[in-house]
Design a protein that fits this description.
This protein is an alpha+beta fold. The protein has 13 helices and eleven strands. It is globular.
Amino acid sequence: MPAAPLAELAAPGGPLDRLVGAGLRAAGTGGVWSAGDAGGVRGRGRAGVLGRGPHGARPMDHDTVFDLASLTKIVALWPCAGALRQAGRLPLDRPLGDYWPPAAGRPVGAVTARQLLTHTAGLPLRTRFAELYGTDPAAIRAGVLAAPLHRPPGVAVEYTDRAAVLLGHLVESLAGAPLDELAARQTWQPLGMADTRYGPLGPDPAGRTAPTEYERSAGRVLCGVVHDPSARLLGGVSGNAGAFSTARDLERFLAALLPGAVGDGAGERGGGGEGGGAAAGSALPWAGPWIAESLRVQTGGLAPARGLSWLCASGTDPAEGTFVHYGFTGTALWVSRRRGRWALLLTNKVHYDRDFRPLTELRNAFRRAVFG
């Protein structure tokens, strides 16, 4: 069923505002949403407060800083891989062992970068880093490189954080720089994403960082420290998790993924919308072909259908081209180049509980409303 005009859907007090407000109350969390097109934001909404206790005094807003969890794979790792791909330095279909010495002679040497990006590499499904390798980041990376495959590459789609950890290591090695520096230089700075960075974050005098879960070993609720334990073991900077951002920054990022994106590197207004992305030109070394290639099905007849890093949205025909990525903390991004729309829904659901069923229902209803 075709979606309604975006201006109608996203109007203040309109269908999206009502849907998300009711859905967040049912899910028991606060959050923010935005929807737009290549010109920028066409509508926004918010509901609830940052959290419980001392966090209950500040309402959610579009400058609230969220732990992105696995959206780090999209906002940090995926563009860095794309920059290498478009520079001719990341062959997607050659076995890693053919060109990356750390992988040579190891099980992962038979895996390709495309298989890492599509979660078809056959890597072990669980991380279990502390249990298997200890707490030293170098030992963890060595353990990921040496681990036997779970199944032969290319035969099944099985989501695993190990794929992003390994790809992050590869990207850093090929680029000769840490992932946080690469992401800032190639994506966040050109797009004017001033609040996007890897943690741990510094002092937050404005109190706008959304808390996540209570961490027993730390004896406190995590706030500004990455929630994902694997990324924490790796010092907070990893391909699978660790980045923090705001809705305002992510609006710029998503608008830049659409054909006809307007604005300069600072995110000028364009086409009547706010927060337009950078033009698909020299400002972004991963723009153009990488985006188009990534937002197409790359997994053949395997299910669930995936692009490069992105997942075909559940409940849609992969041919429709609506892609999504979720973060375990309660975050989500959608984009459709075919429909010329993007959307985001950011929450810190894990701060309250891990009953994700009502949030999943809200996400699905939100996707149907925006993209059909």
